[in-house]
Structures are given as structure tokens and as C-alpha cells.
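Researcher: Next sequence.
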Amino acid sequence: MKGTEHLLKRGLRKSGMRISTLSMRGRVSADRPYAWMDQGLCRKFPPEVFFPEKGNPGREADLAKQICQSCPVINECLEYALGNRDWFGVWGGTTGTERQAIHRG
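Model: Next structure:
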């Protein structure tokens, strides 16, 4: 994960986005590496909010990003999406386009 942390920090600096310190440590265990997902606020909303139709992210993406800002696992979520190069949907308060820009750094 260190490589992903480096990408995240470098990409966020260049993109002007801010995220508090990464909090992946302490929430991941070897037997349940994605246990943090259970704590995501996104679980309380329909998937369509976070995965709007291609070519029409607009309002849905804005709503999803607002929800993410209050999520206790926003950092883990963003790190997961960057580490897996997942460019579809809203993860960690970012759209696929925003994550690609972070990744390119």
C-alpha cells in the first residue's frame, strides 16, 4: 500500500484537493482486508447515487461526493479505488476523472 499512499499524496497536492491523513492503518486485518467497507455511508444509499450512468455523472456525482465528505472511511475508499485503478463511479469523494488525474499526478 505504500506505493498507493505515495500516489495519493502526490496526486492530491497537484490536484489541489485535501484529505486528512490516511487512516488505513488499524482498520485492515489480514482476514478481512475490506472490513472498512462495512463502515461506509454509501451503504445507506442506492448504488445509483455512486455509480451514475456513463456520460451523465452531474448531479448524482455531486450528491455522492457530499455524502463522502462525512464518511468515516473516505481515505480508505479513495486509496482502494486508486490502488485498483477503478475509474468508474464515486469513490472516496472523487469521480473517476478526478482519480485518474490523481493517479497521473
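Model: The two ends are 17 Å apart (CA to CA). Residues 2-15 form the longest helix (14 residues).
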